[in-house]
Each structure stands twice: as C-alpha cells, then as structure tokens.
Amino acid sequence: MKIQITACSFRPQLSVRKSANTARTSACATVFFLILGVAYAQTNQDWTHFVRIAGNGLTSNNADQIVQRAIASNVFGIEVDNDIPGRYESFVDPTEKLKAIRAVAEKAHAAGNYAFVYIAGTECITAHAAQAAHSMAKDHPDWLQRNIKGEPAMFGGGTEFWIREGDEDVWMSPFAKEWRKIYMQRVRQIAATGIDGVYVDIPYWMTHFTGWEDTWASFDDSTVAAFKSKTGLNAKTDLKLGDFKDANFRKWVDFRIEALTDFMREIDANVKAVNPRCKTIPEIYPGIEESAVRVGADVYEMYPVVDAIAHEYETGGMAASRTPLSWFQDMIGMYSFRSFAESKPSWMLSYSWEKEKRIAPGEAMKNLAMAQLMAGTNTWDAQGHVMSGSNDIHTRTLIFEWVKNHEKTFFLPRQPIQPIGVYFSQKSRNYFADEFINSYRGVMLLLLQSHLEFQIVTPRTLASFHGAVLILPDARCLSTEELNYLNSYVASGKTLIATGQTGMYDETGAARATNPIQKLVHYPDCPGQAYYAALQKEFNQGAAVEIDKLRKKYLGQILDGSGYKPGVQIDASPFVSTQIARVDGHVSVFLANFAGLKSKEIAQQTPARNLKITFSTDAPRVITLLPFLGEPRKIEGTFRDGKLSCELPSIEKGAVVWVE
Question: Do the beta carbons of residue 157 and residue 239 sit within 8 Å?
Fold first, then answer.
C-alpha cells in the first residue's frame, strides 16, 4: 500500500478534540504521527522544508491576530519581528518581549503551525539615543566595529530606511567578549520560550552602508587581537586592504568569513542547548558573488552550521524590474544555494513589486513565486521592501494554497540522473570573484538555455559526484586534495573540462609554478565568459536567432568530444530555464518561462509553444503536466525504441512535467 503524506500540514503537538470516540481517535492520531515520523526520516525533511512564509510585527497583545491571518492566507511558517538583542532596551532587559514570543509560539502550535522570531545579528539600535542617558555606543564604545581610521560603525536616522531620526545604529564586533556573552544568553532565553526558530538578520561586518563599502572592517581592538592570535599579523599594518595579490590580505578575507561562520555556529549551539527542536536561520543578502567576501557572510560556509538560510537575494531588483537575463541570473543563484544546502532548505526573502505603474502586483508576485518554486526554494514575498504584509493578499493566498496542494512536487529532494557537473570553487570566488562568477554564470546559462541536465558540484560534494562530465569554469584556486580527486576522476574514464586559468593557484590564492590542470582537458579561452558577455549586451526575443547561434557555438566548444548523451531531451526556447531531476521516484522537468518579460513594463510572458520533451525509458509510461497555479493533467506520449516523446500545450509562466 502506498501512503502519501503532506508533511507540513500537521505537527505532533496538534491536539485532538475529545468525543465519544476519543480512544479510537487518539489511537489513529498516534498511528498517523508514527507514519509522519517515518516520512520525515526517509526524506530527512521537517517543517522548514515546506514553509510558505509571511512576516508580522509582534507586540505584547497581537499573537491571536497574527496566527488568524496566517491561517486565512495559507501561511505555514510564521515570522514574527520582535528583536531582543538588536534593540538596546531589550538587550538590557528582554522580559516583556520574551512573554510575547512565548505567547505567539503557543498560539501557532495550537493551530498546527510553526513560528520563528527575528533578531539582529551584529546590529543594535538605541531609540531616541540623543535624549537617552544610555545607549550602546555611550555605554560600550569598545564593543563597536571600527574602520582602519578607528572610526566607529555608528550611524543615525536616514542612513537606511529602518533607522529613525534620533536613533543610534551601531554594529558590534563578534569578538567583543562581554557583548557576545550577553547575546548568547539572550539567544538561550529566546529558544527557551518554545519558539520554533531563531531568525538572525544581517550577521555582517560593516561594509554595506554608504562610505563603508571599501573599509574591509573591522579594526576594533578585539578583532585585531583575534587576528593577531590566529595569524601573528597586525591587521592595521600588515595588510594591503583590497589587494587580493597580497597573501596577508587574503588571510584577512578568510579570517572575516570564518569569524561570522563561527558566530552562527555558536548561536546554533546555544539555541539547541535549551531547545533541540528550535531552528537557527540566518538571513543573508550576499549570494554567490563578491559581496559575500566583502560582507564576510558566505552562505557556502554557513550552511553546514545552521538549519536553513533565508536568502535576501536578487540580481535584477524586484520581480517587476527584472529582465530575462536577470531572471536567469537569479535562477543560477538559487540553484547554487540548493547545492550548497545539500539536504537543508533554502528560503527566499525577496520582493516582487513596489509601485511599478505598468505592472500589476499580482503578476509580479506570480512570476517571483514561479521562479523560486521551479528552483526548489521556499517563497517569502513581502510588501514593498520590508518583511511583512503583501502587495496583494488575494494573490498570496491563491499561491500559497496551490503550493500547499503540490508541495511534495517542489520540496522533496531532487536527485541527479545523468548530469553535467559544474564546479563552484568557493576559493576561486573569494580571491578572483569577477573572473570566476562570469565564467560560472556563462557555463550555467549555456546548460540552462540548452535544456541539459546539470548538477552544481562543490568542494564538499566533489567526491560524491557520479556524472560522466565535469566542467571547471575558471576555477583558479584548487587544493592538492581537489587536484588529486580530479586526476582520479579522469583516470576513471570520465571527462573533465577546465576553462580559463583553472588550477593556476592553490587554495590560499598563491600562484603555482606550473599549472597541473593543463595536463587535462583545458580551454584557456573560456566559452562561458564569452557567452555571458554576449548576453549582457543583448538578450531579448528580437535577438533570439543570433543568441541561439552563439549558444550552439559555445556549447559545442565545451561539450564536443565529451561523448555526453542526455537522458532527457528538451526542445524549447532559450528563454525557458529547465532543471531535470528525479523526484519521489519520477523523472521530472521543471520549466520556468521568461520570454517577453520587460523591466517595469511587461510581467506577462510570451507563452512557450511547441515545447517537446523526450524521455529515455524502457516502456510506455504516464506523462503528467502540472502548470503553475493549475492542476495536474495527463499528456499523450509516443513510445518508440526506448524513447517516450510528448509535445506540451502552451506554457505561460512555468510548469512541471514528470513520467511514472
């Protein structure tokens, strides 16, 4: 007997109403939750994988209203904004806010839902600081981050939209021992309320406010002392700031990333010490690009030490502002996050619409949700550019209801079948960010727009990659361990394709006397970089014919001679992004259509027509199509000589197709 369970619809604390059949009902409930536990164990997935998120401001008396709104709009995973360590008053005395957190946790659980609470990472605001006798900066100036000149990371109203006039906004050093001790105490108190998650916003080094972008902070005494203890170097005198050719500066880059990763690791340890079921979820806006290095919050490094990451990520602005190319860039970012996360979930806090006059908010919301679901991420779309509300509550309710009904299709693990591997070299990104990212994006664009199965491979997953082709896109920094594995990969008869200056440097960024990768399949000129550069100049339907010529040319340069034969063949426009994977035992194709979209002008796609898919299979099988916001329906297929082919009806925004 096959049992299908919608895992996110229930929680073990859910009460059972008493009746004359209480004993029977309780027994059934016990059996159900035992089955539910088995389902979770088999997929290693809990509630965090199935969330449909909305944000809410939490006060001392609105827990009921928050939970009721969540139920009414199909929210599963309720964010509440009640920042204890990020507001100086509650950093000192958290009593009242802890009561509110406990109340909303209890209300959410009674409704069969989950709730998580927002806290700041390294930021702290004191309200009305100018008139207050005490503030964080007044009481503890030695805890603040500082630039190389010794100036504190302290800001006032108007610096950012969330800082009010008269407020003091400061950024704390994670090496300020007394601050960190109190911070961790507050984290334990929050977790002890029974809340389901602690959501840590902006655990960053201050390099993202105007005037601080190039500081590579922090140079406060405690941070400088920690770096000295670790490396023997004086951060104030022994570095050439911003010069990646300087070995000491590269050590500073690594140290800053390690420091914030360790900060999140300690938060998680404190959370789990008092509430093992409570999740730790940092919110991080840098994605795969150079900003991760500058801010020091690297999602690749953080995923192993937390339960999930909420990515405030967008490469082309809000959904209503994105071009087809920026949509593809965002897809590459999300596919990368899913690779970094491995079995953990990826949440997307991103924004669809902010008063774009020619765009209907509901259309922008649908495009954003569609893209995120096709990438396998959880969607969180707030009003404007904040964390709460909705641009169109009716549309949000509609989307969340549909996601609830089809959550297994999008959130169960996606397993590779016959992928082409694309290597994400984190150290290459750290020290040669632009060169690596341009090459990486270009190669990914070639595969996405050619509708070939891909798998993003990282240093953590390299040894478990089983595909027959692996592409290293200008992966300049490789360790001896990575090189040894790559040599054994080639020795096993598989194809390794390296582009650009792959292998020229070791994992510290130091140049090698000779490049060992040159002994393997190597293309000094990177087709990926060339393709990405061409798309940046023009990527629209008017140039579709020329784009297709370039795509075929550069794809041929990479794959000719590899012998690669896809298990699933897809004939579709290059404006359609595809992912192929095995989900719940079914070969599945996830389709996202970006044709016809125009920044701030058009949010309704040109439908994708004449789209054909051919599956390699041993017998005729049932083909199912699930259009975005539609219902599943069977599609006629033709089976011949081990191939099952079908032509899809017109696809507007997106769809999933699978065989069983």
Answer: no
pLDDT at 525 (0 to 100): 85
**Annotated domain spans of the chain:** 1-43, 420-559, 568-659
CA atoms within 13 A on the CB side of 222: 16
The token duo for 256 is 């800053």
CA dist., res. 428 & res. 459, Å (int): 11
Nearest Cα to Cα of residue 54 among 379, 283, 433? 379
pLDDT given for residue 295 in this prediction:
97
Domains 420-559 and 568-659 share a fold: no
Q: Which of 4-18 are b and which e, b meaning 16 or more Cβ less than 10 Å from the residue's Cβ?
A: eeebbeebeeeeeee
Provide φ and ψ at 611, rounded to 5°.
Answer: -85, 125
Phi then psi for residue 556, to 5 deg, are -60, -40
Fold entry, domain 420-559? Rossmann fold (3.40.50)
Question: What pLDDT was estimated at residue 43?
Answer: 56
Q: What is the pLDDT of residue 520?
A: 66
Residue 447: C-alpha distances to residues 452, 496, 582 (Å): 5, 16, 18
Task: Give the end-to-end CA distance of the chain in Å, rounded to a whole number.
Answer: 17
Predicted local distance difference test score (pLDDT) of residue 524: 79
- Which positions of the chain have pLDDT values less than 70? 1-43, 518-522
Q: What is the CATH number of domain 568-659?
A: 2.60.40.1180
pLDDT computed for residue 541 by the predictor: 76
DSSP for residue 288: S
* Whole-model pTM over 0.70: yes
pLDDT at 506: 97
Tens digits of residue pLDDT in 373-414: 999 999 999 998 889 999 999 999 999 999 999 999 999 999
Residue 21: exposure state from Cβ atoms within 10 A (0-12, 13-18, ≥19): exposed
Residue of 485, 484, 488, 486 whose CA lies nearest to 471: 486
Query: Measured between alpha carbons, how far is 3 from 527 in angstroms, rounded to an integer?
Result: 48
